[in-house]
Amino acid sequence: MTHTVATAKKLEEALRADGVRITRQRAAILKVLSEAEDHPDATELHRRARDIDESVSLATVYRTLTALEEQGIVHRHSFEGTPARFETADLPHHDHIIDLDTGEVVEFRSDKIERLQAAIAEELGYDVVRHRLELYCRRKDK
Ligand SMILES: [Zn+2]
């Protein structure tokens, strides 16, 4: 999924609206978050942010992620067997495959599954508000 530089600005604005001051450290975190296409965990985000600004601490990464998550701007994924991983919430809806051998996260979207879920919920008297679907997989060619 493609992220744009505009995302970093949007993240900044959302934090500002919440009264959070955009320090150099936070700006670095927002930049790497908006450019990430691989669902990095906090440690990896910290590593990348430090390439931009050495003074970014892991604690600042955690605090910033928590603030962004509380505002629904960032999704935290608690995939089994991996530390929490993050992605911006502005992407079109998609689900995830987690490769059990490599930990790699692959995005997919199926209209068939979306429709089926809506139909199941409907039958049971519900509207789907949101959902998360995670497939834990192993490559066939292994
Ligand atoms: Zn994703």
Automatic annotation (TrEMBL):
The keyword Protein biosynthesis does not apply. GO terms for biological process: negative regulation of DNA-templated transcription; regulation of secondary metabolite biosynthetic process. It comes from Acuticoccus mangrovi. Belongs to the Fur family. Binds 1 Mn(2+) or Fe(2+) ion per subunit. Keywords: Cytoplasm, DNA-binding, Iron, Metal-binding, Repressor, Transcription, Transcription regulation, Zinc. The keyword Glycoprotein does not apply. This is Ferric uptake regulation protein. GO terms for cellular component: cytosol. One of its GO terms (molecular function) is transcription cis-regulatory region binding. It is found in: Cytoplasm. Fe cation binds at H93, D95, E114, H131. InterPro entries: FUR (IPR002481), Fur_C (IPR043135), WH-like_DNA-bd_sf (IPR036388), WH_DNA-bd_sf (IPR036390). Its cofactor is Mn(2+); Fe(2+).
